[in-house]
Write a structure and sequence with these properties.
Rossmann fold, two-stranded antiparallel sheet, about 25% helix, globular, binds S-adenosyl-L-homocysteine
């Protein structure tokens, strides 16, 4: 059985070997202990393995290398106001909080939002605000955003989210049919319109309309 320190080293090594090479992203991920976000789950002892794990409400905390690659693709700067759709465990939002000025995160399940808020408080991540809402409509009151990350798969990038992206902004979103393999898409809003590039195949839980039954 390896020590915690060894496990964390292996964790960072796995991230690098899968293409997460941005130093700021790696530092943010090193600061963010994934075990905090899977606590109590039956798979808590697998927190440092590069695999998705089940969390409450039938959802999943994403695979760390995918979190790293998406965060890297988002090119977050310390001035940015970021929106995350799909709070889940709060892991992705916590990583973003080390990279951005301000993070707003929304989930359709109230229970997940409450759980994530408790961890943000415990870890003193004061620049994150979590809301229970249908994130496909974004957060009109807080818009526009410099960066938007969607961590559930949509059939198309939701129009309201595109509309809430500032000129010069970047959005990363998995796109495709819910059960098939999806494509991670990066959208840049320039003065002359939206530019899309396709990054890699991914697999996410679907973006679902409306609030969860618990919220
Ligand atoms: N980013 C998370 C993992 C997200 S799993 C983490 O770091 O742990 C995808 C999440 O998207 C789920 O929690 C699900 O409830 C949420 N979701 C799905 N459709 C949504 C919608 N329309 N609005 C907000 N959240 C949504």
């Amino acid at each position: 059985m390896s020590s915690d320190a060894e496990r964390k080293m292996q964790f960072l090594y796995a991230l690098r070997s899968k293409g997460v090479t941005d130093a700021r992203v790696l530092t943010a991920m090193e600061k963010t202990d994934r075990a905090e976000f899977v606590q109590g789950g039956v798979f808590a002892d697998r927190a440092y393995e590069d695999m998705p794990l089940p969390i409450a409400c039938g959802q999943t905390i994403s695979q760390p290398s995918v979190v790293g690659l998406m965060t890297q693709a988002l090119e977050v700067t310390p001035r940015d106001k970021v929106l995350e759709v799909g709070t889940g465990s709060g892991y992705q939002a916590a990583i973003l909080s080390h990279l951005a000025r301000r993070v707003y995160t929304v989930d359709r399940h109230k229970r997940l939002v409450q759980g994530a808020r408790a961890i943000f408080d415990k870890l003193d991540l004061t620049n994150i605000t979590a809301f229970t809402a249908d994130g496909s409509f974004g957060l009109p009151d807080q818009a526009p955003f410099d960066r938007i990350i969607v961590t559930a798969a949509a059939e198309d990038p939701p129009g309201p989210l595109l509309a809430q992206l500032r000129v010069g902004g970047i959005m990363v979103v998995p796109v495709g049919q819910s059960d098939a393999v999806q494509s991670l898409i990066r959208v840049r809003r320039a003065e002359d319109g939206l530019h899309y590039d396709e990054l890699r195949p991914v697999r996410f839980v679907p973006l679902v309309e409306g609030l969860g039954r618990d919220g």
